[in-house]
Specification:
Blueprint (H helix, E strand, L loop, with lengths): L14 E4 L4 H11 L10 H9 L4 E6 L5 E9 L4 E9 L8 H10 L9 E4 L6 H5 L18
Parallel strand pairs: 4-5
Antiparallel strand pairs: 1-2, 2-3, 3-4
Length: 149
């Protein structure tokens, strides 16, 4: 469950960015999913598969306890498209810069530097947060479609 670590971004004091998720982190990620509207029904046994099939991944954990408190993952072909998924910061820690570290780490990942289209899905109230990095919903030729099975 390898991830990426940025050497240039400052993680809030008492926390560190991690490059690998352990089994304990998998449990922490499942707990973080439970804090979201889009993933609260995800099953613990599916988390390993999500992590195996997502690259790159970013995690932030508490220094002492090693508890995972923030996470993001990417699906990409490493050539044309990359989509950022599951940007999650523990609800008790939001507004302290963890989300910024997650997004900047993903956007600065060396394997994504030549990918022209990096996308994500978000709710309307979070558009201003992502707009800081140039994300826009002003794509009149594009429509989001979903087929639920």
């Amino acid at each position: 469950m390898r991830g990426i670590v940025s050497n240039t971004l400052v993680v809030p004091t008492g926390y560190e960015q991690i490059a690998e998720l352990t089994l304990a982190h998998r449990d922490d990620l499942h707990r973080l999913y439970g804090q979201t509207w889009w993933a609260r029904d995800r099953k613990l046994q599916d988390v390993d598969r999500v992590l195996r099939n997502s690259k790159p991944i970013v995690g932030i954990c508490e220094c002492g306890s090693r508890k995972l408190v923030a996470f993001a993952r990417v699906l990409t072909d490493f050539i044309y498209k990359a989509t950022i998924y599951d940007v999650i910061v523990d609800e008790k820690l939001r507004g302290r810069g963890f989300g910024r570290v997650l997004i900047e780490t993903v956007l600065n990942h060396p394997d994504l530097q030549n990918v022209p289209d990096i996308e994500l899905y978000t709710r309307a109230e979070l558009i201003p947060f992502y707009a800081k990095w140039g994300f826009t919903g002003d794509l009149p030729e594009v429509r989001f479609l979903r087929k639920r099975t």
